[in-house]
Design brief:
Distance between the termini: 17 Å
Radius of gyration: 11 Å
CATH superfamily: Ferrous iron transport protein A (FeoA)
Number of strands: 6
Structural class: mainly beta
Number of helices: 2
Largest sheet: 6 strands, antiparallel
Helix content: 10-25%
Order of helices and strands: EEHEEEHE
Number of domains: 1
Length: 83
C-alpha cells in the first residue's frame, strides 16, 4: 500500500486517512469525519480543477482539490469500498 494525497486519487480508489496537513485549513472536513483513521472512497472527480466527491463516515462530501491535497491516504490494495 502506498500513501498519496487524497487529491491524487481517482474514482473508486479508497483507503484510510493517515495524515492531515495544516488542519486549520481543512477543519470543516475534519469536523465532517475526514480525520486520521477514517476510511475514504473517491466517488467522482470533476475535470480540470473541479471538486471531487468522496464518501467517508457514511456520507458523501464534495471536496475542493486544494483541500484534498492536505489529506494523506494509505491507498487500499484493491478497489473494494472501505467507506
Amino acid at each position: 500500500m502506498s500513501v498519496k494525497q487524497l487529491s491524487e486519487l481517482g474514482p473508486a480508489e479508497c483507503g484510510v486517512i493517515e495524515r492531515v496537513d495544516t488542519p486549520e485549513e481543512v477543519m470543516a472536513l475534519v469536523q465532517m469525519g475526514c480525520c486520521i483513521g477514517s476510511s475514504v472512497e473517491v466517488r467522482h472527480v470533476a475535470p480540470a480543477d473541479g471538486p471531487m466527491a468522496i464518501c467517508t463516515c457514511g456520507r458523501t462530501l464534495s471536496v475542493r482539490k486544494e483541500a484534498a491535497a492536505h489529506l494523506w491516504v494509505r491507498v487500499a490494495a484493491d478497489s473494494a469500498s472501505v467507506a
